[in-house]
Design a protein that fits this description.
globular, 45% strand, 13% helix, mainly beta
């Protein structure tokens, strides 16, 4: 039943777009606030009506109904049988907290990203994996106009990423065949990122390091062997087109991944979106499995 609802949602979105309805829409309650005398009440009512509470896109927000991979996904639950075609969605938002607490022009943010891999084409349509990624970070503006690097900003942050599964390491099973394997995956990490701009090319260099418990008390102590400690991402704009290319990895183990995306605007806030991923760490549950996957759908930010 869920797959039909999913298809209906996509058709409805297309129909509204085809009828030329503004992507901004009409305010939910269409309140009249111009005559409100109290300025604070007026402002509060306007924010409530517009649903404006400071949340902005963080990472890409997308809905990808079709994602095809080579091979078959491993099932950690005996009753789940996965197909190699699935849907994927991501919601990622950030909240601005303030600027210049230390007089450096820096800006403070909280963010949350929610990524889900949905086996919509399989029986009962289970969610194969869900990833939760809260973080807090500070962005420092840098005006480096005199060097070749042309650095525009530096970011420092602390993040947590997990799939929300509880550990079953100490659970006793009647037989080995009853043990689905430990599905718990999580990591806490510090990171820093530097952004550079050269005309319509924005380059992002990112380094991260996990907190010590990853190696001493963790369900996935070898996670960094596959995820690595650094990445480089190129974001290129050509008229309305946007192309990205990301590579990350561990130089010692030789494991890593590459990802390329393409987007093109269909409406003011909706884009055609395509993604190719190849390597390790597509999801936390399969961080040590090599996956090549091609996905198509829509994004609602870039």
């Amino acid at each position: 039943m869920r797959k039909y609802f999913f298809i209906l949602l996509l058709i409805s979105s297309y129909c509204f777009a085809s009828e030329g309805i503004s992507p901004k829409g009409v305010e939910q309650h269409n309140l009249e606030v111009t005559e409100i005398e109290n300025a604070e009440s007026k402002k509060a009512m306007q924010k409530w009506q517009n649903r404006d509470f400071g949340l902005k896109p963080h990472k890409v927000n997308y809905l990808l109904p079709y994602g095809y991979r080579e091979g078959v996904y491993k099932s950690y639950v005996p009753t789940d049988v996965y197909t190699n075609i699935e849907a994927e969605l991501q919601v990622s938002l950030k909240l601005y907290l303030g600027t210049g607490f230390f007089g450096l022009g820096e800006s403070y943010y909280l963010a949350y990203s929610h990524q889900a891999f949905w086996q919509i084409y399989a029986d009962s349509s289970p969610f194969r994996e869900t990833i939760y990624n809260p973080e807090g970070f500070v962005v420092f503006p840098i005006y480096d106009k005199d060097s070749f690097l042309n650095i525009t900003s530096a970011t420092v942050g602390l993040a947590h990423k997990s799939n929300g599964q509880g550990s079953n390491v100490n659970v006793t099973y009647a037989s080995a065949s009853d043990n689905p394997g430990n599905r718990s995956r999580s990591v806490n990490y510090f990171y820093t990122e530097v952004a550079m701009q050269h005309d319509t090319l924005i380059t992002e260099l990112k380094l991260w390091i996990p907190t010590p418990e990853l190696y001493t008390d963790s369900d996935n102590p070898d996670l960094m062997d596959y995820m690595g400690y650094s990445s480089i991402k190129f974001n290129y704009f050509a008229h309305k087109h946007m192309i990205t290319l990301m590579a990350r990895g561990n130089m010692i183990t030789g494991y890593g991944a590459v990802e390329a995306t393409y987007s093109y605007p269909l409406l003011d806030d909706a884009y055609f979106y395509a993604k190719i991923f190849s390597g390790y760490g597509e999801s936390l549950i399969d961080y040590d499995n090599y996956i090549t996957k091609f996905s198509l759908g829509f994004s609602f930010s870039r």
